[in-house]
Design goal:
Number of helices: 10
Shape: elongated
CATH architecture of the largest domain: 3-Layer(aba) Sandwich
Pfam families: GerE (PF00196), Response_reg (PF00072)
Structural class: alpha/beta
CATH class of the largest domain: Alpha Beta
Helix content: 40-55%
Strand content: 5-15%
Organism: Nocardioides agri
Radius of gyration: 18 Å
Protein name: Response regulator
Oligomer: single chain
GO molecular function: DNA binding
InterPro entries: CheY-like_superfamily, NreC/VraR/RcsB-like_REC, Sig_transdc_resp-reg_C-effctor, Sig_transdc_resp-reg_receiver, Tscrpt_reg_LuxR_C, WalR-like
Distance between the termini: 39 Å
CATH topology of the largest domain: Rossmann fold
Number of strands: 5
């Protein structure tokens, strides 16, 4: 299995590369320090699996995963995250990731996860199994058709608003700056002609957003 590792922390990146290098069926073909480099190297080095950190400069892991899904759909992405924050993992899965691992997983867990993803399987924690199964079946994905005036990003944020997330939680889940979230929320309220956030939540839930 040809593996590319993308992480902006050199110690973690190099350590993981060394660990995977001891696995008999894994070849680490390269490492990337940010999402943009990960996308470029995935095109150049044709890995089977990209182990993708989520918080990276230039291009975050979710956007890099989305770009790979569009340009290199044959490459499987396994994301690494610091914790099982619901919105973050769901955003990664929506972007095209085949699963995730929490940083701190053992060498054997990492090797098994890479092997599973390479074979076409999915890897995620039991606590999110039902949510992700719903997502992959399409029932939990935000439906933009109900709000054609909104951009894809605005629908994604409206979905999290309807799920009861505040701006700080949305910023953390989508790896956006708090100011960016505030601006998007203002745009959403204006485009929907909603009187306030609560009004937007009611309308979004009526349309099936917010996890049903």
């Amino acid at each position: 299995m040809r593996v590319l590792i993308a992480d902006d922390h050199p110690v973690f990146r190099d350590g993981l590369a060394s660990l995977l290098g001891t696995q008999p069926d894994v070849t680490v073909v390269g490492t990337a320090a940010d999402g943009a480099e990960a996308v470029a190297l995935a095109t150049e080095l044709t890995p089977d699996v990209v182990v993708m950190d989520l918080q990276m400069p230039e291009l975050n892991g979710i956007d890099a995963t989305r770009r790979l899904a569009e340009t290199r759909p044959d490459v499987r992405v396994l994301v690494f995250t610091m914790g099982e924050e619901d919105g973050t993992v769901l955003a990664a899965m929506r972007a095209g990731a085949r699963g995730y691992l929490v940083k701190g997983a053992s060498q054997d867990e990492v090797a098994r996860a890479i092997s599973t993803v390479h074979a076409g399987g999915l890897v995620f924690g039991a606590s999110l199994a039902l949510r992700i199964a719903d997502l992959l079946s399409g029932s939990a994905a935000p439906d933009r058709s109900a709000f054609p005036q909104l951009t894809e990003r605005e629908v994604e944020i409206l979905d999290l608003i309807a799920a009861g997330k505040n701006n700080a939680q949305i910023a953390a889940a989508l790896y956006l700056a708090p100011k960016t979230v505030r601006n998007n929320v203002s745009n959403i309220l204006a485009k929907l002609q909603a009187t306030d956030r609560a009004d937007a939540i009611i309308r979004a839930r009526d349309a099936g957003l917010g996890g049903g």
